[in-house]
Specification:
Distance between the termini: 28 Å
Largest sheet: 5 strands, antiparallel
Strand order of the largest sheet: 1-5-3-4-2
Number of strands: 5
Radius of gyration: 13 Å
Number of domains: 1
Number of helices: 3
Shape: globular
Organism: Haptolina brevifila
Helix content: 25-40%
Order of helices and strands: HHEEHEEE
Strand content: 15-25%
Protein name: Apple domain-containing protein
Length: 114
């Protein structure tokens, strides 16, 4: 996708300041999002939710912030991140082979450890 090519040339490429964890997630993430989300959801027993990200975050910082939020959510196993839309969505399940692509500017992947 065009946004991915542009991002790889710029801000989505892991910067030297990116944590190893964020760099690993960015390197294995795929274009698209798991599902639409409307609210934070219920981390204790829900299947999905979303958190707002600060507007000034680049891709590496957005991925790091979303991974950190996911760590605090018991059922978070996958995340969809958009630095463009300042969105961090979490999911208990996600079919990474069938991501949604009607809204460009999202990357998704499984929770990664350091």
């Amino acid at each position: 996708q065009a946004w991915r090519a542009a991002a790889k040339a710029g801000s989505k490429k892991p910067s030297q300041s990116a944590s190893p964890r964020a760099a690993k997630w960015l390197g294995t993430s795929r274009d698209g999002y798991c599902q639409r989300t409307q609210d934070e959801g219920t981390c204790a027993n829900g299947d999905k939710g979303s958190f707002s990200l600060a507007k000034e975050l680049d891709w590496a910082a957005a991925a790091e912030a979303c991974l950190n939020r996911c760590d605090q959510c018991a059922r978070c196993r996958y995340i969809s991140v958009s630095a463009n839309f300042h969105d961090c969505s979490w999911f208990f399940t996600c079919n990474l082979a069938r991501l949604q692509s009607d809204v460009p500017g999202f990357a998704s992947g499984a929770l990664v450890s350091t």
